[in-house]
Amino acid sequence: MPMSDARSIVYAGIGGFALIISLAHLGGRLDQQLILGSFGASCVLVFGFPDLPFSQPRNIFFGHAASSLIGLGCLEFMGAEPWSMAFAVALAIMTMMATRTVHPPAGSNPVIIFLTHPKWSFLLTPTIVGAALIIAFALLYNNATRPQKYPKSW
Questions:
Q1: Which of 45, 100, 109, 117 is the most buried (most CB within 10 A)?
Q2: pLDDT band (50, 70, 90) for residue 14
Q3: What are the pLDDT digits (tens) for 42-76?
Q4: Range 117-126, long-range pairs (CB < 8 A, 24+ positions)
Q5: Is the pTM of this model over 0.90?
Q6: Which ranges carry the HPP transmembrane region domain (predicted)?
Q7: How far apart are the first and last CA of the chain?
């Protein structure tokens, strides 16, 4: 992979910082969790490598939503066992690949779910609302700081 220029590196870092601090503050004001551990890795993609297929809005939204849904379903119906957690990750990978919505950070959502045992509302917040906010922020920030347009595809 070629070295990124200094400007791109700084803007990627600022984008990641600004998004996570915004989600934290907004979540605090709304008394809702809007941050998911995998969102930090999503920041790497959307701000560091926004032109990759994995960084496109469709992949961010559906990758996170599908992986969380699968994790919640496997936890609910198979129990909190190592094999069911591994099955949930495998099923999330296969689903993202089959639907052409691969977003690698979302592959950790089933693991996060098995470690934290959230309620079904986790699918809405932080997963769906958070993914939508990542996309909205990435649209605004990337188009304001880069000459290339984001996204490359929907």
A1: 109
A2: very high
A3: 999 999 999 999 999 999 999 999 999 999 999 99
A4: 117/75, 117/80, 118/72, 120/72, 120/76, 122/68, 122/72, 123/65, 123/68, 123/69, 123/72, 125/32, 125/33, 125/34, 126/27, 126/32, 126/33, 126/34, 126/35, 126/36, 126/39
A5: yes
A6: 4-151
A7: 25
Q: From CA 42, how far away is CA 18, in angstroms rounded?
A: 13
